């Protein structure tokens, strides 16, 4: 009996040693993830010119990070417009393995890379997280010739190519919403491409285009100043706040015209796992604050959301298939 007990104790001791040895790499990995922090300024790339929704998204995140002391190093927001997002995609792709580079990523840029067959696609980068959902709408200059969506559609049908609708870049959400407008209303408007929604707004107020495509955050100031009239939204349901009286396309009889944007963050290929973990935790903390919910999400009539890196990757992989299908339906991709 003593001999058996001795063997049992030795066996348990050996097992505990094996267990201890086996747990060390996992513990070290976890400790590394916890201990990693940025060691220099983080470059935050915006794939469009200043003044748009992506630019606002980056600057608000950078501000919230510093205000809440979530990073020992600050963010430097850099605008790199061009090629409907391709310039920024290529730039960030060239920073392979760099844990100190971020890029704003939204559904429009993912679409653009697919439509334009860009050399760098979203899935070649590192997904970090989703921070919210945005909607799209059509707005007109209060001093312009159009006061309602029905008159825009009527003119675009009766006088093809005379109605000019401005949007930010090609092959993205703005462009897709325009193509959906033409296809499902039977209209034939002209798409005028700009580098950012800020440029679209300037063209609209200057009378150079008839209609602008915007996120609520991109036109909110002009809407509240009563310089821009929002005519219709591409959202599933009405947008709250200043847009609660603006109908959806579904409400006016075009149920197939529906589109929203996701706001997310990505990094270069092969970004270290410990950096991704640090950043996704940072984004979770930011999106959990009441300040973010009230002064970014609610203020800009957005839908709150958070996804970690793994869920963001899954989401965009699924959405990419849908985006390609939608662009094929409207005839942009043959």
UniProtKB/TrEMBL annotation:
Full protein name: Tripartite tricarboxylate transporter family receptor
CDD domains in the record: PBP2_Bug_TTT
Keywords: Receptor, Signal
Pfam family, one: TctC
Species in which this protein is naturally found: Anaerosporomusa subterranea
Signal peptide range: 1-20
Stored InterPro entries: BUG, Bug_dom1
Sequence similarity: Belongs to the UPF0065 (bug) family.
Source organism, top-level taxon: Bacteria
């Amino acid at each position: 009996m003593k001999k058996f007990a001795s063997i049992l104790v030795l066996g348990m001791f050996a097992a505990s040693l094996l267990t201890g040895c086996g747990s060390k790499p996992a513990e070290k990995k976890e400790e590394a993830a916890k201990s990693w922090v940025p060691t220099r300024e983080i470059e935050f790339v915006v794939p469009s010119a200043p003044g748009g929704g992506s630019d606002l998204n980056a600057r608000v995140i950078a501000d919230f990070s510093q205000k809440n002391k979530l990073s020992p190093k600050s963010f430097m927001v850099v605008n790199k417009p061009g090629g409907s997002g391709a310039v920024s995609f290529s730039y960030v792709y060239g920073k392979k393995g760099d844990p100190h580079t971020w890029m704003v990523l939204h559904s429009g840029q993912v679409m653009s890379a697919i439509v334009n067959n860009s050399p760098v696609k979203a899935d070649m980068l590192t997904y970090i997280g989703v921070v919210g959902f945005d909607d799209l709408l059509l707005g007109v200059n209060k001093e312009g010739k159009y006061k309602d969506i029905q008159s825009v559609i009527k003119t675009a049908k009766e006088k093809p190519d005379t109605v000019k609708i401005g949007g930010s870049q090609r092959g993205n959400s703005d462009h897709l919403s325009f193509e959906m407008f033409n296809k499902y209303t039977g209209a034939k408007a002209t798409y005028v491409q700009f580098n950012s929604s800020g440029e679209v707004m300037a063209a609209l107020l200057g009378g150079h285009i008839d209609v602008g495509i915007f996120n609520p955050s991109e036109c909110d100031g002009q809407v509240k100043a009563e310089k821009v009239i929002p005519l219709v939204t591409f959202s599933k349901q009405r947008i709250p706040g200043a847009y609660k009286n603006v109908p959806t396309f579904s409400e006016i009889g075009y149920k197939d015209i529906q589109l929203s944007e996701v706001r997310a963050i990505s990094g270069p290929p092969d970004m270290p796992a410990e950096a991704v973990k640090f950043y996704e935790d940072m984004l979770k903390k930011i999106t959990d604050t009441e300040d973010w919910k009230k002064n970014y999400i609610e203020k800009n009539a957005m839908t709150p959301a958070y996804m970690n890196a793994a869920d963001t990757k899954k989401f965009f992989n699924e959405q990419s298939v849908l985006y390609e299908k939608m662009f094929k339906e409207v005839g942009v991709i043959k």
